Every structure is written in structure tokens, then in C-alpha cells.
Automatic annotation (TrEMBL):
Its main location: cytoplasm. GO terms for molecular function: GTP binding; GTPase activity; translation initiation factor activity. This is Probable translation initiation factor IF-2. It is found in: Cytoplasm. It comes from the Archaea. GTP binds at residues 17-24, 79-83, 133-136. It comes from Methanimicrococcus stummii. The keyword rRNA processing does not apply.
């Protein structure tokens, strides 16, 4: 990768959509294939997120030349449950998602949370793609595991292709109704004008190389300036969840999207009323699967740089607010940071 691009952080990609349309399965597929291709690089499990390094993605896309072309260190995927809480999180977190994937079950079509997801992304002007999932369930579909969409599509019978087209254009029609000019991804020349739609199966991996490739392309095209960050700057993130953990007491799961957070740092966390000011007692990441002999599921780390998902243990965080900001502060910046956190609640 080119030297000058070393300070681009990993883009955060939110996977959204209606309940049961296949968000988690899509991520499992990306995780799974990446683990199989393990020799290319290591998948990092974060709290509430999965990081897929660029070399794994490049390997998966099957074109080594991409390695020189792409500038981001990888993609950090965040799964979201198909429920309302995410709206709140997005409104408060603001810049949490750099990119998004909206998952639509091609056999079920548009549903309320599909529309809700689109509205959130419209409001925040987040670049995104739509995937029409579960193509393997189209009557007569012949599975070609892990292949690109066009490769598997071209091997289907004309009848199956016809059935696919019918369902696919139904989704395109719904997107138009929602005010989006959309088309199949391989026919899109300008992703700024036209929304790219990728047919996939999260279960069989068909179309997944296309998803990874298009996401990298979007990151490259639209995010270069917003992904530049100061790795030595204060840690800035959003609280995903407040959770009781055995042996740790109350903890908060945080997605860090700027700077670096260290053990012992003073942090300001949003809540109703005056923000919490406390000190990071422990920064925790999930233990690797190979380390399950340990009593705790978590492993302490000294510091963490954006973008990352991390669990924080600290005193007095019981009434931290999911969706609220968390920012680290020095004695000099503390008052200003408190004001900033307060203004974002
Ligand atoms: P919530 O988190 O509850 O909103 O659901 P989700 O969107 O994460 O859906 P999930 O991945 O849990 O999938 C729901 C069901 O659909 C599971 O039984 C999956 O196995 C199945 N499924 C998901 N993707 C596919 C696919 O591409 N093909 C087929 N045949 N089944 C799928
Ligand atoms: Mg899920």
C-alpha cells in the first residue's frame, strides 16, 4: 500500500435491514470466508464489530492488482438488529457509519425496516449499497458457492434468470418509489448518481466478492478525506450498549471512530443531565477462540486506535446512554469536552 495513505482509518460499514432478511448471515459469510483464507491475514473480532483486513478482501475478490489500488486498511463491519434502537443510535452517534449495506430478502421484498433503514441513510447522507439477498432460494437456482454474481447468473437457465429478473426489478421499483435511482451494480457507471444493487446469497457466498469490491470502491471514491484522522488525537466514539458483565460490573461497548483511547484516560460520556467524567479502568477486546481456557471472555489491552469496537470498564458508568458520545480529555480540554458531549445528547 502506498506510504502516504497510512493514516486512513478503517471505514465503518453498518449492515442494516428488515428482521430476518440475512444481515448476520452475510457477516458470517464474510467472516467465514476470511477465516478460510486465513493465510492472507487475520480477522479481528471486535466488540460489536468484525474487522476484515484489506489483504483478505483482495484475496476474496480474486484480483491481486487491487492491493495497490485500494487505500483503506480494511473494513470494519457492524451488525445491527432489525429494530428501532438503531435509529436512536444513528441520530446521536452522527458520523458512526461511513458506509452501509441495506439487506433486502429478494423473495420478500420491501418491509417497514427496509424503508426505515433507507430513510436513516438518506438523512445522514451515508453512501450505501443495497443487496438483494437469498437468491439461492429462487425456484430452480443452481448454487455456485462463493462466485461473483455474474458468474453464477450466467450459469442459470433462462427460466430461472426470468424469475430472478422479476423479483429483482420489483426491488428496483420499490427503490424508485423511495426516491432512489437504482440499478444492478454492474450497470452503474456513477455510484454518486445511481444506487448500486447487488444480488447475493449470504448463505452460499454468491455475490459476496462483488459486495466487498463495491464497498472498497465507495470508500475510495467518497471517503478519502473523512477517513483521514489523527491517530494521536483524543479517542472519540459512540456507546453501543451498556452491559453488566460477570466479574467486571457495568461496562460499555463502544465503537471508536477517531483517535486513540488508552487505559487510564479520562473520558467524558453522555447521559441525561450532566455528562459522566470518569477514568478508563480497563479496555477489553474479545479473546481469540483458541484462548477459551481463560475464565474471562475478554482480554485487557493497553490502548486502541480507531476504527474499532471495544469494551470499557470504568467507575460510575451505570447511567451511560446507548447512542451517546464518549470522548477522552486532558485537564486542559476537559471543560470543552464536557460541553461538546452535553451538546450532542
Ligand atoms: P435480525 O438480526 O433478527 O434482524 O435478522 P438478520 O437480518 O440478521 O437475519 P439472519 O442472518 O439471522 O437470517 C435469518 C434467516 O434467514 C436464517 O435462518 C438464515 O439462515 C436465513 N438466511 C439468511 N441469508 C440467507 C440466504 O442467502 N439464503 C438462504 N436460503 N437463507 C438465508
Ligand atoms: Mg441478525
Amino acid at each position: 500500500m502506498a506510504e502516504e495513505n497510512q493514516n486512513l482509518r478503517t471505514p465503518i460499514v453498518c449492515v442494516m435491514g428488515h428482521v430476518d432478511h440475512g444481515k448476520t448471515t452475510l457477516l458470517d459469510q464474510i467472516r467465514g470466508t476470511a477465516i478460510v483464507k486465513g493465510e492472507a491475514g487475520a480477522i479481528t473480532q471486535h466488540i460489536g464489530a468484525t474487522e476484515v483486513p484489506i489483504d483478505v478482501i483482495v484475496e476474496k475478490c480474486g484480483d491481486k492488482r487491487l492491493a495497490d489500488k485500494f487505500i483503506v486498511p480494511g473494513l470494519l463491519f457492524i451488525d445491527t438488529p432489525g429494530h428501532h434502537a438503531f435509529t436512536t443510535l444513528r441520530s446521536r452517534g452522527g458520523s458512526l457509519a461511513d458506509l452501509a449495506v441495506v439487506v433486502v430478502d429478494i423473495n420478500e421484498g420491501f418491509k417497514p425496516q427496509t424503508i426505515e433503514s433507507l430513510n436513516i441513510l438518506k438523512r445522514f447522507k451515508t453512501p450505501f449499497i443495497v443487496v438483494t439477498n437469498k437468491i439461492d432460494r429462487i425456484l430452480g437456482w443452481k448454487v455456485h458457492e462463493g462466485e461473483s454474481f455474474l458468474s453464477t447468473y450466467n450459469k442459470q437457465t433462462p427460466e430461472v434468470q426470468g424469475l430472478f429478473e422479476q423479483k429483482f426489478y420489483d426491488v428496483i421499483g420499490h427503490l424508485y418509489e423511495q426516491g432512489f435511482s437504482a440499478d444492478r451494480f454492474d450497470r452503474v457507471t456513477d455510484f454518486q448518481k445511481t444506487l448500486g444493487v447487488i444480488p447475493i446469497s449470504g448463505l452460499t457466498g454468491e455475490g459476496i466478492p462483488d459486495v466487498l469490491m463495491i464497498l472498497l470502491g465507495l470508500a475510495q471514491r467518497f471517503l478519502e478525506s473523512s477517513l483521514q484522522y489523527d491517530i494521536n488525537g483524543p479517542g472519540v466514539g459512540t456507546v453501543l450498549e451498556v452491559k453488566d458483565e460477570k466479574g467486571l460490573g457495568t461496562t460499555i461497548d463502544v465503537i471508536l471512530y477517531d483517535g486513540t483511547l488508552k487505559k487510564g484516560d479520562t473520558v467524558v460520556i453522555g447521559r441525561l443531565g450532566e455528562p459522566i467524567v470518569t477514568k478508563v479502568r480497563a479496555l477489553l477486546k474479545p479473546r481469540e477462540l483458541s484462548e477459551i481456557r481463560y475464565e474471562s471472555k475478554f482480554q485487557p489491552i493497553q490502548e486502541v486506535a480507531a476504527a474499532a469496537g471495544v469494551k470499557i470498564s470504568a467507575p460510575d458508568i451505570d447511567d451511560a446512554l446507548a447512542g451517546a458520545p464518549i470522548i477522552s480529555a486532558t485537564p486542559e480540554t476537559l471543560d470543552a469536552v464536557i460541553e461538546k458531549v452535553k451538546s450532542e445528547i
